[in-house]
Hints:
Blueprint: H1 18-23, H2 32-38, H3 42-45, E1 47-50, E2 54-58, E3 68-72, H4 84-104, E4 109-114, E5 130-135, H5 142-147, H6 156-171
Antiparallel strand pairs: 1-2, 2-3, 3-5, 4-5
Amino acid sequence: MSDSFPREHLEGLWAPWRVEYFEHKETSDPDFLLTAANSPDDEEHFVVARRKTCFLIMNKYPYSAGHLMVVPYRKINQLQDLTEEEVLETWELCVHAQQLLTICVRAQGFNVGWNIGRAGGAGVDDHLHMHVVPRWIGDSNFMTTISGTRVIPEGLTPLYKRLREARSSLEG
């Protein structure tokens, strides 16, 4: 790098959200979705909302800030195994997630979808879940493409609290 490079124009990559990972004990619970489904402590597992057959949870390793997942309580791995009630509640929670993310992170669009099976890109291939990923115009940048790094501007806990407050006001 040249000495004449305008260093005053450089910005630091600030990632305060990383401290949340360092402060928590390392646990690699392969059944973390089932654990969250059965836990009474929503905050510990970042569960945003619950319905009769499905729940809405934050992704702890998000593609972008606010990445949520809709998960049936039952541990199934195929769409055809969903009951009619689970199908309906999955889509209702997907709509609810979009409303929350529009309020909390000002999402301008969404990627919504399923990664079914390991070949389909599922990180958890034995517990079906739908991804709801907020997007913004111009949110693509070189970091993911060139450096294999995603920049997540907000920590999980502060965003979780905002999502729960927004949920209360929407449902209230």
